[in-house]
C-alpha cells in the first residue's frame, strides 16, 4: 500500500532533507487540496507529519490535520508532538485513524506499552528513525533526529514483544528526502525477523523503480513524499506499478 506523505509546517506543505529544518523545501500547495489529489489518484491512506510539533514537542496543527482527514475522505495516520495520551485522544477524536509515536517509543517504552494496552494496537504506529553505523547496525535517533541513542534498534523493538504491537514505521535517515532508493536490506531483515509486524517503509524513494524494489519485499506500506511533490512520477503510477 502506498502512503503519500504531507509534512506540515505553519500550515504549509514542506519537505526536509534528512530531517534537517535548515534544509527545507516549501511547496505552494494547499494541504487539503493535496489530500484531495491523493484521494483522486486512488490512495486509501495518507501520512501526515506535524513538523512544528516534532520540533517543539507539542502538537500544534491538530485542527488542520483533522480537516484533512474529514475533507479528503482518506484514512490518516499522523505524528509530531504527540507526547501524552490526552493529545493522542484529541487527534483520534478529530477523525485521525492512527497516531504515530516516535521518540517516546525509544525513550519511554513502559509508557508507550501502556498506551498500546489502553488504546489498542490499531490506533498507534511506532516510528523508528534510524542511522546505520559503519558496521550496518541501526541505531534510533530521537528529538527530531538531533540525538542518537546507544541501544540498537532491534533491541528496542524486542522490548515490545508481547504487547500486541502491530504496525511500525522505519526510516533510514541517511536516505530521507535523498531519492536514492529505500534501504531494502534493512527492511528485508525486519520482515524476516518480525513477520507478525506490519512494516511501513520510509525514506529514499525517487523513482518508480525504487517503488518496485520496495514492493518486491511485500511490506505493509511504503511512504512517498518528495518524489511526488517534485513530479518524478504520479501517485497513481506508484499505486499501480
Automatic annotation (TrEMBL):
The active site is at 7 (proton acceptor), 129 (proton donor). It catalyses: 1-(5-phospho-beta-D-ribosyl)-5-[(5-phospho-beta-D-ribosylamino)methylideneamino]imidazole-4-carboxamide = 5-[(5-phospho-1-deoxy-D-ribulos-1-ylimino)methylamino]-1-(5-phospho-beta-D-ribosyl)imidazole-4-carboxamide. Keywords: Amino-acid biosynthesis, Cytoplasm, Histidine biosynthesis, Isomerase. It is an enzyme of class 5 (isomerase). It is found in: Cytoplasm. GO terms for biological process: L-histidine biosynthetic process; L-tryptophan biosynthetic process. GO terms for cellular component: cytoplasm. SUPFAM superfamilies: Ribulose-phoshate binding barrel. Pathway: Amino-acid biosynthesis; L-histidine biosynthesis; L-histidine from 5-phospho-alpha-D-ribose 1-diphosphate: step 4/9. Its EC number is 5.3.1.16. GO terms for molecular function: 1-(5-phosphoribosyl)-5-[(5-phosphoribosylamino)methylideneamino]imidazole-4-carboxamide isomerase activity. It comes from the Bacteria. It holds the Pfam family His_biosynth. PANTHER family: 1-(5-PHOSPHORIBOSYL)-5-[(5-PHOSPHORIBOSYLAMINO)METHYLIDENEAMINO] IMIDAZOLE-4-CARBOXAMIDE ISOMERASE. Belongs to the HisA/HisF family. This is 1-(5-phosphoribosyl)-5-[(5-phosphoribosylamino)methylideneamino] imidazole-4-carboxamide isomerase. It comes from Algimonas arctica.
Amino acid at each position: 500500500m502506498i502512503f503519500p506523505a504531507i509534512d506540515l509546517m505553519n500550515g504549509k506543505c514542506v519537505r526536509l532533507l534528512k530531517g534537517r529544518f535548515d534544509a527545507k523545501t516549501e511547496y505552494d500547495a494547499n494541504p487539503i487540496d493535496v489530500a484531495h489529489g491523493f484521494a483522486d489518484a486512488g490512495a486509501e491512506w495518507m501520512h501526515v507529519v506535524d513538523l512544528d510539533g516534532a520540533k517543539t514537542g507539542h502538537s500544534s496543527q491538530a485542527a488542520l490535520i483533522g480537516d484533512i482527514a474529514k475533507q479528503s475522505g482518506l484514512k490518516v495516520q499522523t505524528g509530531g508532538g504527540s507526547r501524552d495520551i490526552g493529545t493522542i485522544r484529541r487527534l483520534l477524536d478529530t477523525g485521525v485513524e492512527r497516531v504515530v509515536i516516535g521518540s517516546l517509543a525509544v525513550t519511554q517504552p513502559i509508557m508507550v506499552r501502556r498506551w498500546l494496552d489502553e488504546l489498542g494496537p490499531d490506533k498507534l504506529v511506532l516510528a523508528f528513525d534510524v542511522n546505520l553505523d559503519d558496521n550496518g547496525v541501526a541505531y534510533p535517533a530521537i528529538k527530531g533526529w538531533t540525538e542518537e541513542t546507544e541501544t540498537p534498534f532491534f533491541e528496542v523493538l524486542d522490548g515490545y514483544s508481547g504487547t500486541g504491537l502491530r504496525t511500525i514505521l522505519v526510516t533510514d535517515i541517511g536516505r530521507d528526502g535523498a531519492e536514492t532508493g529505500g534501504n531494502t536490506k534493512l527492511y528485508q531483515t525486519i520482515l524476516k525477523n518480525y513477520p507478525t509486524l506490519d512494516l511501513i517503509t520510509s525514506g529514499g524513494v525517487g523513482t518508480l523503480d525504487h517503488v518496485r524494489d520496495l514492493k518486491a519485499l511485500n511490506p505493509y506500506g511504503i511512504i512517498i513524499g518528495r518524489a511526488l511533490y517534485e513530479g518524478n512520477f504520479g501517485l497513481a503510477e506508484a499505486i499501480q506499478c
